[in-house]
């Protein structure tokens, strides 16, 4: 038998025409993000955001994200002796990600920072650190959002806020006041009602101690069950109310928080989502009885902004992956990035990504200024956050699918990371109110909240006269508002979102970006899929701005 030398036998496995690993890369190499950071009053943090972006793109941090999703959390209901413990075990990579996120101020830290722009800094940090993975953003988001709700009960806020706003990650369950830092979760939805929280059946019974209740019921979606405290909705004698539920009571004993199971989710698999059962669970009233929704709504406004942020982050991350592949992969005699149709696809994705990032940072700026007492920004935030939550999160799945397709078969295998991003994308439209809930919330804001409509059109007026297509869109929008209905709510909110994004790009982006966005999203010179920009679009300028390293 004739054998060939080892080097000849291996020649069929020579690797050519494959992209090298993306990491290490700089997740902060994003012109639209850095411009937005400065524009929204947080330029003082640019050096820190750049540092965090470089760390997010490091081989180590990217590996943390991969490992945290490959090794999913495991529920332990009992210890070896049969004692009920209700603990969730995470892979060490999860703890690495959480430790960095908390230390970098991506949880509750902005509430303890008086500098203008502090909340914008947190959002910008999320836009870059989110390049690692999305699941651990859930507990940091809820912790951030819990602080303004907890302030409705000053005596509780005095105890817990300094720990919720700290920068130390302490994952061990013990008495909250004995820890260096706390994480907060929330438990609102139940299986019979979902977003219709007024149908909740969890009962809150007052005890002899003022402000202290016991809860009995079953929550349907409570993510990050290893948090230290939770804001929970339950039916008190005076109606639906908000309560603070600690996992560990002041005397060191475990509060009754029986985790029935962890959800087997489409994506977001690094993060545990649970069904806890309350039975004699000790809770403290937050805000007046009967005002649970009013108390917790500020928390929802914060987490909705984080859904917009996370969708924008997924867009940016998958665009970078697609651009990296196209830069290094060749087909039919040329690099993919040099081929006109691929350039059209990538440029179209770049427009969508920049519009999402720019809107995210504008919303963060509004939130920051609203916290500091700006009534106009508060009104704008109220309506624009719901608009952004509806639209940007809706665009996420289609965007990630197109970016994945840029990698072809390479993008369809788990090793590329693209399937994980694709599975993550639909979540952000579902959590914190699905599309219908947010669309109807926009109608509610228009009809019930004084100043919301005026604040939106005051924002749009800042770009008046700069683009005829935008001016026409604003006129159409005013006409549609006069005949707004529940049936047409999605179409109305879509038009509001596109008009708002266009106005921001007309004011702040280079002319090729703004012109292409207005021509397609407002002017109708567009197909029904990404990659259908008109022949006149300046693809070179758009891609030069969007892709790290240029084109």
Task: Please provide a written account of the structure.
- The chain is of the alpha+beta class and 551 residues long.
- It has two domains: 31-289, Butyryl-CoA Dehydrogenase, subunit A, domain 2 (Beta Barrel), CATH 2.40.110.20; 294-546, Up-down Bundle (Butyryl-CoA Dehydrogenase, subunit A, domain 3), CATH 1.20.140.10.
- Helices cover 51% and strands 12% of the residues.
- The protein contains 20 helices and twelve strands.
- The protein has helices at 6-9, 31-39, 46-56, 59-70, 92-103, 118-129, 137-150, 154-164, 292-328, 340-371, 375-406, 409-412, 418-424, 427-430, 435-448, 452-461, 468-481, 489-508, 511-522, 539-546; strands at residues 74-78, 84-89, 184-187, 203-206, 212-218, 222-223, 229-236, 239-246, 258-262, 273-286, 330-331, 334-335.
- The strands form three sheets. Strands 3, 4, 5, 6, 7, 8, 9 and 10 form an eight-stranded mixed beta sheet that branches.
- A hairpin with a 2-residue loop joins strand 7 (229-236) and strand 8 (239-246).
- Helix 11 (375-406) runs antiparallel to helix 15 (435-448), helix 15 packs across helix 18 (489-508) and helix 18 packs antiparallel against helix 19.
- It is globular.
- The model has no long low-confidence stretch (mean pLDDT 95).
- Its cofactor is FAD.
- Residues 17-171 form the Adaptive response protein AidB N-terminal domain.
């Amino acid at each position: 038998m004739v054998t060939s030398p080892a080097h000849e036998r291996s020649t069929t496995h020579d690797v050519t025409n494959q992209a090298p690993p993306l990491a290490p890369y700089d997740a902060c190499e994003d012109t639209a993000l850095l411009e937005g950071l400065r524009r929204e009053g947080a330029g003082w943090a640019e050096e820190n955001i750049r540092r965090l972006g470089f760390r997010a793109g490091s081989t180590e941090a990217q590996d943390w994200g991969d490992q945290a999703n490959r090794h999913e959390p495991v529920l332990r209901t009992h210890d070896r002796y049969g004692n009920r413990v209700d603990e969730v075990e995470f892979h060490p990579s999860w703890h690495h990600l959480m430790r960095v996120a908390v230390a970098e101020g991506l949880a509750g830290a902005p509430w303890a920072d008086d500098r203008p722009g502090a909340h914008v800094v947190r959002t910008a940090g999320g836009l870059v650190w989110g390049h690692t993975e999305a699941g651990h953003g859930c507990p940091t988001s809820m912790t951030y959002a819990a602080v303004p709700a907890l302030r409705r009960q000053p005596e509780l806020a005095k105890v817990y806020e300094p720990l919720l706003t700290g920068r130390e990650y302490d994952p061990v369950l013990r008495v909250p006041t004995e820890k260096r830092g706390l994480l907060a979760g929330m438990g609102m939805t139940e299986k019979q009602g979902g977003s219709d929280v007024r149908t909740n059946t969890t009962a809150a019974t007052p005890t002899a101690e003022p402000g202290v209740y016991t809860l009995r019921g079953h929550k349907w979606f409570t993510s990050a069950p290893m948090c230290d405290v939770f804001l929970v909705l339950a039916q008190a004698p005076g109606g639906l109310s908000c309560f603070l539920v600690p996992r560990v009571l002041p005397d060191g004993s475990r509060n009754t928080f029986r985790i029935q199971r962890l959800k087997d989710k489409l994506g977001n698999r690094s993060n545990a989502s649970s069904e806890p059962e309350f039975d004699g669970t000790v809770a403290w009233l937050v805000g007046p009885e009967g005002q649970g929704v009013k108390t917790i709504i500020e928390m929802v406004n914060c987490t909705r902004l984080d859904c917009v942020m996370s969708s924008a982050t997924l867009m940016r991350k998958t665009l970078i992956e697609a651009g990296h592949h196209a830069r290094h992969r060749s087909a039919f005699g040329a690099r993919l990035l040099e081929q006109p149709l691929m350039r059209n696809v990538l440029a179209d994705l770049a427009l969508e990504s920049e519009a999402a990032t720019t809107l995210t940072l504008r919303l963060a700026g509004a939130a920051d200024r609203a916290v500091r007492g700006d009534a106009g920004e508060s009104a704008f935030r109220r309506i624009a956050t719901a608009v952004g939550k509806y639209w940007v999160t809706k665009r996420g799945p289609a965007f990630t699918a197109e970016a994945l397709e840029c990698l072809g078969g390479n993008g369809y295998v788990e090793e590329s990371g693209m399937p994980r991003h694709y599975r993550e994308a639909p979540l952000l439209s579902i959590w914190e109110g699905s599309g219908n809930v947010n669309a109807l919330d926009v109608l509610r804001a228009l009809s019930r909240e004084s100043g919301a409509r005026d604040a939106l059109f005051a924002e749009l007026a800042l770009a008046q006269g700069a683009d005829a297509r935008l001016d026409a869109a604003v006129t159409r929008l005013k006409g549609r508002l006069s005949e707004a209905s529940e049936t047409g709510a999605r179409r109305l909110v879509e038009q509001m979102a596109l008009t708002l994004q266009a106005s921001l790009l007309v004011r702040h982006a280079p002319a090729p970006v703004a012109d292409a966005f207005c021509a397609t999203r407002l002017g109708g010179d567009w197909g029904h899929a990404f990659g259908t920009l008109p022949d006149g679009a300046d693809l070179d300028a758009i891609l030069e701005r969007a892709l790290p390293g240029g084109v």
